[in-house]
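Bench notes, afternoon.
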Amino acid sequence: MHGNQRSKELFQRWAEMAAFTPLMRSHEGNRPDDNHQYDTDAETMAHLARMTKIYKHLKPYIQSAVSDNATKGIPVQRPLFMHYEQDSEAYHIQYQYLFGRDLLVAPVYNQGETVKHLYLPEEEWVHVWSGKTYTGGWVEVDAPIGQPPVFYRQQSKDARLLAEISRY
């Protein structure tokens, strides 16, 4: 309907983002025969399985963030300015978010995009896939399918768990 069609790339990027949300799920769409599905090919199934393993690995981290939401009203997915209120740039960031306190996610949403230009608040951030540490500001990172731009705070109490994301 209306010419919208979910491509393989879009499905894979959605799966990547879903792994870094409180509830990972997908939909077959309103025209399943016209859209790429998780079982369209082996590569897509393997990609979804990998992202699901990452989501499962994050279970204790997610449970803690959900508990904070239930008891303190703090959102699980947060705007950057929520923790960096003195950072004026953080108020302008619309297409990335904090997942819990310690993960920063910058989903890839442009077709064909494999390098992401994103903002990191001033602090030590570790790029999940490369292990490289950044101290904040505007950065560019490679963002091939399977490696969405995700960073964790080096000072996180969950740093060991978050560093292990890259093993999947």
